[in-house]
Amino acid sequence: MNSSEPPSRPQLAVSGAIFRDGKVLLVRRARSPGNGFYSLPGGRVEFGESLHTALHREVDEETGLRIDIVGLAGWREVLPAGAGGGHYLIMSFAARWVSREPVLNEEHDDFKWLVPEEIGDLKLTGGLREIVQAARRLV
Predict the structure, then answer these.
(1) Domains in the chain, ordered, with CATH?
(2) Residues with Cβ < 8 Å from 88, sequence gap 6 or more?
(3) Per-residue pLDDT tens digits for 104-135
């Protein structure tokens, strides 16, 4: 399989609803899949990596933040929407901001700290509102 082909099997991924002073961090994707949509920081779990280790690594790579993981807020399955689409199982965690300010990598081009009620009509990845609400109850 080359890097331009989607994986032939479902991929395990993690994401984090990171809260700071009652606000959640949303990042806007700068490339496919989901280019232009706001989402939560996260990504694929590497072989032999725990879910928590993967989330700490992904959040560090994508934002530079240090976080404290509180608990599992929910999960979401993303099925291929067409040719070239991937199949992902995303385990989403509630987390608290610990330190550092966001510094985005090339995967994202914007971020916002928002009170969940202020999310409004932003273009969001599927299921994001529900995960944020579930995570908010945990923090």
Answers:
(1) 11-138 (3.90.79.10)
(2) 10, 11, 12, 13, 77, 78
(3) 999 999 999 999 999 999 999 999 999 999 99
